[in-house]
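User: Predict the structure for this protein chain, please.
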Amino acid sequence: MHKSGFIVAIAPLIFAITACGGGSGQTTNTPSSPGSNPPVPATRNRLDSIKSRGQVICGVSGEIPGFSFVGTDGKYSGIDVDICRAMAAALFDKPDAVEFRNLNTKERFTALQTGEVDVLSRNTTWTLSRDTSVGLEFAPVVFYDGQSIMVRKNSNIKSLADLKDKAICVQTGTTTEQNLADQMRKRGITYKPIVFEDVNVTFATYAQGRCDGITADRSALVSRRITLPKPEDNVILEEVISSEPLAPAIAKGDTRLSDTLKWVVYSLVKAEELGITSQNVGQFATSNDPDIRRFLGTEGNLGEGLGLTNDFAARVIRHVGNYGEIYDRNLGPKTKLNLPRSQNQLWNKGGLLYSPPFR
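Assistant: Here is the predicted structure, written as structure tokens:
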């Protein structure tokens, strides 16, 4: 994820919005080539290897504020980062036992398939083909998103129809590129795709005025808009042209690691549902409620079935917080992104987040 004079100019602005939270880890920019090779089955003792190693190797973007971003202090922050930290907390009781590796959209799947990373937590859309032919095993969705288009306010572009014969910047190797093509074809709208592999170059090209619009997930458009020289001069169209369920993933073939990641994610949601936070988890440990006792591991042996300690959920919540805390820390009203939770609310608050029973 590379270069542009514009990128240099906006870097301080991006750094300035980085959240304070998040664990630090080594950054390795992986030179993996895009994979045309078939997926390599994951070894079935991957979880044991992680335990022996003493840290989780997690593939992230490192360039998306609110999801995964490296601050000027070298620390990572964002929802995707906190999923990795939650895994480390569950396994080691140490949320910083993570090595982060920055991966672009072409490298990310190859890195999983070859075993370079244990977990991919990189704003990746869960699709049928990725679940089958690419060979990924997805965990529960951690962010429900949708694709839209950002344009300049003075462009008089109000809808997709207004983009007829216009140039639209889009990042290749993503569902975004195909979604745009499908929507424009369905509506009979001709357009000029301006395609780049690098997300920074894609947005820099839009900022330089070489594209009439730029398309990405709405969350990405919001996070990038505030890094532009004049954010207020850019608007995101109301139209949402796709559903983008973003979820972490591992390579297929390792049921134990898959179950661990799955229930770590569910623990974040369940804790919020139960009202358990990083601040009060100790108080809940003395609860007489059997559901809470099983969840926190003070009763029963649910953790053993995952190869974890029975208090794994308590570890996760103590170190990282519940889903609501993670969301607010990275995307909530006290951040510059200020993204409403919308579909990312709990099921009993009108959202889509739901956890199976811990029993």
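Residues 255-274 form the longest helix (20 residues).
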